[in-house]
Amino acid sequence: MKFAVVGAGAIGAFVGALLQKTGQDVTLIARGPHMRAMKERGIRVTGSMGEFEAHPTVTDDPAAAGEIDVVILALKAHSLTQMAPRLAPLLGPATSIISMQNGIPWWYFSRHGGEWEGTHLETVDPGGVISNNIDPARLVGCVIYCSTIITEPGVIDHIEGVRFPIGELDGERSDRCRQIAEAFQKAGMKCPVRSNIRHDIWVKLLGNVAFNPISALTRATMTDILNCPETRLLAQSIMGEAEKIAASLGIDLGISIEQRMIGAEKVGPHKTSMLQDVEAGRPLELESIVGAVVELGDKLGIDIPSTRAVHACAKLLARGVA
After folding, report:
1. Which of 14, 123, 128, 186 lies deepest, with the highest CB count within 10 Å?
2. Is 204 a catalytic residue?
3. Among residues 2, 204, 271, 299, which one is catalytic?
4. How do the domains of the chain map onto residue ranges?
5. Rounded to whole angstroms, how far apart are CA atoms 68 and 94?
6. How far apart are the C-alpha atoms of 9 and 17, rounded to whole Å?
7. Residue 230: exposed, middle, or buried by beta-carbon count in 10 A (0-12, 13-18, 19+)?
8. Per-residue pLDDT tens for 142-184?
9. Are strands 68-73 and 91-99 parallel, antiparallel or unpaired?
10. How high does pLDDT run on average in the chain?
11. Given this chain, do its domains 2-195 and 198-317 carry the same CATH topology?
């Protein structure tokens, strides 16, 4: 299969390196010093899976890759508005697109069924630019359970996790999901095919919507947040609000908030991705992780005061970071 990874940063380059190492035809689309290093020297992966190198094709121009079987969108959600109109050269009649964004994706209500079918979320798709350029029939949802960092241009350190559950937006057990899962599994990743990928989105979001903005605002690690009674209580309150929204949309999380807190304690003194972005001066994935939850609360008429307050403060912080 021909894969193109659009947004080959820490996660995208790692996935692309694994796929290329097992014989897949992979093109990475990136930018800046990281792109130049990968183009000149390939990718070096270090960390928990050992050390190896991979040499996929690397470019900063989607048009240079030609038509692709599977496009992996590994960009952060706020970068998709600019990239979506540039994807057309990659798309043939049967091209599939895997969406690997954190939080609530722009496509959440596409092929959803029921009264919310087609509902637009302005927080994650301002002006409908993304949905106007990406046909939802092409989309395969994906949730990332993988932690990687770029230690220097062209070098990816894998910290933990290789799980990438995928699923059709309408829950179908499709041949294309099976083929993608087989390619990922052959490359050493775990890629279960889900019949309700939105459930997986909410299970992950339950932690992210609380811990990411709190950590960004306080510069605290997961351990710090959990060991402080006040921030622990705030995180539980935000999780409870997200749980109400998920339930109103028909999602039974199947995990209690207390279980989620126990799982977070096992992570240890971890810096969330949003805190890492604050420290690096990068734009924050605030709207897909928190803003979309606030927007859903408004649409559903659910009061979410804790989430709304933290979102307001984090939004002010984000203006100073970007």
Report:
1. 14
2. yes
3. 204
4. 2-195, 198-317
5. 9
6. 11
7. exposed
8. 999 999 999 999 999 999 999 999 999 999 999 999 999 999 9
9. parallel
10. 96
11. no
Looking at CATH, the fold of the domain delimited by 2-195 is given as Rossmann fold (3.40.50)
Q: Cα–chain-centroid distance for residue 96?
A: 17
Overall size of the chain counted in residues: 322
Label residue 195 exposed, middle or buried (CB < 10 Å: 0-12, 13-18, 19+).
exposed
pTM: 0.95
Residues 164 and 181 sit within 8 Å (Cβ to Cβ): no
**Does domain 198-317 correspond to CATH entry 3.40.1010.10?**
no
Instruction: Please report the pLDDT score of residue 320 as a whole number.
Output: 79
- Rounded to 5 degrees, φ, ψ at 20 are -65, -35
pLDDT tens-digit readout, 27-80? 999 999 999 999 999 999 999 889 999 999 999 999 999 999 999 999 999 999
